[in-house]
Amino acid sequence: MRFFKIIAVLIILLVGAYAASMYYFVDESKDFKIEKEVDYPLEKVFNQFNNLQNFTRWNNFFTSSQSIDIDYYTPYEGQGGSISYIDPKNDTDGEMFIRYENPNKSLRYHLFEDRNENPTLVDVKFKAVSPTKTKIIWVVQTPKLSVLRRVENFWTEDRFAENIDKSMANLKNVLGNKVEKDNQMAAIKYDSLMVENEESKLLLGINVSTSNKKDALFKNIVMNYNKIYNYTTMDLGKRDDEFGFPTLITDADNYKDKEVSYFLGIPLSKKFGVTDNNFSFRTINASQNYVMYYKGTYEGRVKAVQQLIQKAKKDEMRFGDIRQTFIERPTEGQEVNMKLSLSVFK
């Protein structure tokens, strides 16, 4: 019995010493600042922060869990915007509000986690470093904690910083796809032959062999594009601004064949496990390409392909696959808007 009394006294003393050290040496809340730069214009960056539907697509706090369910409340953008979330798998829930907005300059968020009546206060400031670069500054104040929970303040800043690092990687992928699409649309010159150096890409898609009779090929492309798009957006949960234009890879001169084999895929930023065996990843290596933009019937693309092949032969260049990048999604019964790229080499 005496042994248990001694243990009880020791526990009380330890708890008392812990509580005293927390009370005198650890603040009840924590303040810190984190700065980052991204290589995108201020207006594009700010819109990813003041629109909560955009915000939750790349912020690691929300994207790191597959089981999280988010409800959005009007206004979805700017001061007054708010969301609530629940994550049953990780047993967390909360609410987030935009309390203040100074367009393209600053935002103030309040985040309430797990029924805590005290919010995490986050002020985010934006500064244009150049026309194509933006500095983002987070000033964070954590909620006040009881004496026994103040130990959490030792790792709060590290946890927040890690979340921002992962979020910035996601944001760069989102903005990269947006800027790439905008730049490609702005650079279009139809029926003009150009030379481009293309960086490597990672595609998630389908390998297909199908008939080349009449419009059978294009109908097959539309069908398979819809499969890939639905799998990417519904099964994988990717948003349109998280991936690039659909790209079809095939032999340059197979338009003459009765049967055509091709790979159709959507560019993604990284490889991951795919549970459906119908889909696979394929890497397009960096290459020099002869390029033409074409708009019209899918069958009419053959003339543009022939021009690219003739140019390669005239320049005594060898050529590989031809890539058909659909600037607008392929739709049955409609004209195509595409970029034709013939990889060439000595």
UniProtKB/TrEMBL annotation:
Superkingdom of the source species: Bacteria
Family named by the database record: Belongs to the AHA1 family.
Stated name of the protein: Activator of Hsp90 ATPase homologue 1/2-like C-terminal domain-containing protein
Domain Activator of Hsp90 ATPase homologue 1/2-like C-terminal per the UniProt entry, residue ranges: 39-175
Pfam families per UniProt: AHSA1
